Amino acid sequence: MTKIDIIQLAKVLNLSKSTVSRAFMGSSDIKPETRARILKVAEELNYRPNHYASNLRKQKSKIIAVVVPELGNNFFSQIIRGVERVAKAKDYHVLVYTTDGDIQKEKDFLNSISNGRVDGVLMSVSGAAGDSAHLKNIDVNRLPIVLFDRTYADVNLPKVVTDDYESSYTATQHLLENGCKRIAYLVVNKEHSIGKTRLQGYQDALKKNGLPVLDELIVDCAHAYAENATRMESLFREVKPDGVLASVERLAFSTYYVCQALNIRIPEDLKVVAYSSLEIVQLLNPSLTTITQPAEAVGEAAATLLLDRLIAGEEPEEPQHVILPSNLLIRKSSALEA
Amino acid sequence: MTKIDIIQLAKVLNLSKSTVSRAFMGSSDIKPETRARILKVAEELNYRPNHYASNLRKQKSKIIAVVVPELGNNFFSQIIRGVERVAKAKDYHVLVYTTDGDIQKEKDFLNSISNGRVDGVLMSVSGAAGDSAHLKNIDVNRLPIVLFDRTYADVNLPKVVTDDYESSYTATQHLLENGCKRIAYLVVNKEHSIGKTRLQGYQDALKKNGLPVLDELIVDCAHAYAENATRMESLFREVKPDGVLASVERLAFSTYYVCQALNIRIPEDLKVVAYSSLEIVQLLNPSLTTITQPAEAVGEAAATLLLDRLIAGEEPEEPQHVILPSNLLIRKSSALEA
DNA sequence: TTGTATGCGTTATCAC
DNA sequence: GTGATAACGCATACAA
């Protein structure tokens, strides 16, 4: 199985390499029979166009990158699934990068792909509003970028997000209606895009209902589980909320653990709602009320935006912003009665 | 920000492009000061070596592919995380592909990457034992492959798996010791590698304990949830097992749902153990006893095997087989008393 | 519709 | 330690 290149194949066929090339490019002007003959012999000789050469020639790789803060979270896995699905349909390949929420890794990533390797980027960012300089410096005509879920407010790129403000508002309203007076908002970083937007929805719902927004009820959590547990223990012991809105899945789970430890009953003593796209939260004890984002659809929408742009070949005048609706799935953890 | 190439950069520096190239290759013989000067000016002019050209020249891309059956399963997300971690450390990039357990997609994938694009492949396969022809035809000297978790028994490639036989045996033994007499084995495809090995462990544990292996207790499930639910309902109603060993996470969740519907109590009426790497199974009602595979470690080991091979540049005499131990985490779902 | 010639931007080999 | 030159394998402008 010796490697064969286009020239050798052309020789065997008694054709020029350009003709052979055209056969593989799906090119317009080539006689169908010639094309068929080329493909047939190529198959026999096990010839495949060399991607490295063709990438260089075209300055394109048919590869896109998707950058996510983490993979442990089911939400992002589903997004990648969506991205991969549409990419495959359009014959693109997808490179996956994790930043662990570390903005330096986000920058390193951009550095590592500058000048070839990918045709475009899908990214859920890791920094806060002021951290977007590295994105502003990049020429989107050379390297189109689409942001999703976690974005920079001050950067004007195409985006796909969910209705964070509305869903947070609705969820808070739901807790209020079910009798909560002191709702805690649990966030990983309240300066980051979604943490911030969701905070706003929460606050506005409180205000709208004539309730005060208390700093002590807004808890900025860490990544480490142990640290969060401690912080939440003191929250539950000292501040005594009667409701919790967890802006990310993980914090709801911490809430459950800590409640178990402290003998706090959900939903009797504390009602819980969380952003989560894990299907089995239905089996938790009690089943968890969630705001569920259409994860796979987010991935698909973002990929579609990017690939349409890549295939069209030109930057649209105004970056598109897509907003997908989340779903409030009411379960036992926020029930009025147990 | 006009794009600049190595020739222009060399001109600015009054050097030849070879020297400039050497500076970026981290090459041995180049005067440190020259190198520093080149890097400095390159930085100023925002020059970056073009990957496409470099890939063509070297016939290498520093990209590896990881192929998984699905992404919804946390196990594979964690594996990808592990792969990406070691890849990043060695300056490799990782392409992700999903096959949905469809062997045709597995073949399509191999086709799409033949002749460039990736330097090596990590794969968890989708077919049964007889389906490995497409792997045998590939020249591992050109395209090294490492299999993980789900492998083909009849294909002699480097592999990283977990102790499926032992863990299944141990889990069955555990159920037996806690009083089960009729243990059902739930599998997605009992002809596939892990399904088969785990079945063997289950069977041998039964035999060892003088219990019969009953076909009616071995349930080959589907992918669709609804179909499984039906099948399991009739299993629970008619065959009445008192224990369940679920060879994949998803089937344990189905079990929980069906038990809820049929008012079967876990663990009183039915004890459940499942392969799962989802951390929050601790919060299920009741908490789920699991066989937990070291997912991230599997990814790391597989990636290490592959990258060592790529960096060494030559095929080792004998493909390495790594076996990582799983953990039986005993929780309430298999408890003797509730 | 097909062939010819050139260049994509590097890296490697060989001189100096 | 540095420079000149020849690939790497293909895709395209242009000619036929």
Description:
2 copies of one chain form a homodimer. The first copy, chain A, is an alpha/beta fold. The first copy, chain A, contains 12 helices and 12 strands. In chain A, helix 2 packs across helix 3 (32-45). The longest helix of chain A is centred in the last third of the chain and has 18 residues, at 295-312. The relative contact order of chain A is 0.13. The mean pLDDT of chain A is 94. The interface between A and B is large, with 45 and 44 residues. Chain A binds a DNA duplex (16 and 16 nucleotides) through helix 2 and helix 4.
Question: Quick summary of this structure?
Answer:
Chain A is an alpha/beta fold.
Can you tag this structure with a few keywords?
homodimer, 338 residues, alpha/beta, 6-stranded parallel beta sheet, 12 helices, 43% helix, DNA-binding
Low-confidence stretches of chain A: none
Overall, the morphology of chain A is: elongated
Q: Largest interface, by Cβ-Cβ below 8 angstroms: which chains and how many residues each?
A: A-B, 45 and 44 residues
Biggest sheet overview of chain A: 6 strands, parallel
Mean pLDDT rating of chain A: 94
Amino-to-carboxy terminus distance of chain A: 69 Å
- Sequence of strands across the biggest β-sheet of chain A: 2-1-3-4-5-11
Number of strands of chain A: 12
- Beta-sheet strand percentage of chain A? 15-25%
Q: What series of H and E elements makes up the topology of chain A?
A: HHHHEHEHEHEEHEHEHEHEEHEE
Radius of gyration of chain A: 25 Å
